[in-house]
Amino acid sequence: MDVDISIRVDGDTHRLSVDTRTTVLDTLRERLGITSPKKGCDHGQCGACTVLLNGRRVNSCLLLAVAHDGAEIVTAAGLAVDGQMHPMQRSFIEHDAFQCGYCTPGQIVSAVAMLGEAAAGWPSFATPAGEQPATPDSGGMRDDEIRERMSGNLCRCAAYANIVPAIREVAEA
């Protein structure tokens, strides 16, 4: 059964009819031709499909499109403003924080959202008991804090040695 929905992706509104079983990821890739979110595991375990949905990072392979009628979605491609790369995108390039690049869009979207979560004071597992969470504006974030907050995004090439410094640089800026 198809249902009519409207979603706003990277600033553009799309009205389409989707099968009730279609995920947000498949809607983006197959129906709208937006290929920056990748289908990695299709089980919500790798983070290659990470997008911002109404400002929150989500694994788009786990969400049904019909449940998000009217949603605002931002992909890695939508992070750029007026043709200028987002600071996180620039930092990933400057730090050579990718190898094959397959996971990179999801890593970047997740990193941008993670810094927002940290700035809002959301604790993580790496936050020591009784301490305030590390925030980007409290003198930076420890590498273990960045790793923990990014743990839902996997890289098969193991580019983590460059991903963490790329994120830290933006956090400290």
UniProtKB/TrEMBL annotation:
<dbReference type="Pfam" id="PF01799">
    <property type="entry name" value="Fer2_2"/>
</dbReference>
<dbReference type="InterPro" id="IPR036884">
    <property type="entry name" value="2Fe-2S-bd_dom_sf"/>
</dbReference>
<dbReference type="InterPro" id="IPR006058">
    <property type="entry name" value="2Fe2S_fd_BS"/>
</dbReference>
<dbReference type="InterPro" id="IPR001041">
    <property type="entry name" value="2Fe-2S_ferredoxin-type"/>
</dbReference>
<keyword id="KW-0408">Iron</keyword>
<keyword id="KW-0479">Metal-binding</keyword>
<dbReference type="InterPro" id="IPR002888">
    <property type="entry name" value="2Fe-2S-bd"/>
</dbReference>
<keyword id="KW-0560">Oxidoreductase</keyword>
<feature type="domain" description="2Fe-2S ferredoxin-type">
    <location>
        <begin position="3"/>
        <end position="79"/>
    </location>
</feature>
<protein>
    <submittedName>
        <fullName>Aldehyde dehydrogenase iron-sulfur subunit</fullName>
    </submittedName>
</protein>
<dbReference type="InterPro" id="IPR012675">
    <property type="entry name" value="Beta-grasp_dom_sf"/>
</dbReference>
<dbReference type="Pfam" id="PF00111">
    <property type="entry name" value="Fer2"/>
</dbReference>
<feature type="region of interest" description="Disordered">
    <location>
        <begin position="125"/>
        <end position="144"/>
    </location>
</feature>
<dbReference type="InterPro" id="IPR036010">
    <property type="entry name" value="2Fe-2S_ferredoxin-like_sf"/>
</dbReference>
<dbReference type="InterPro" id="IPR052914">
    <property type="entry name" value="Aldehyde_Oxdr_Iron-Sulfur"/>
</dbReference>
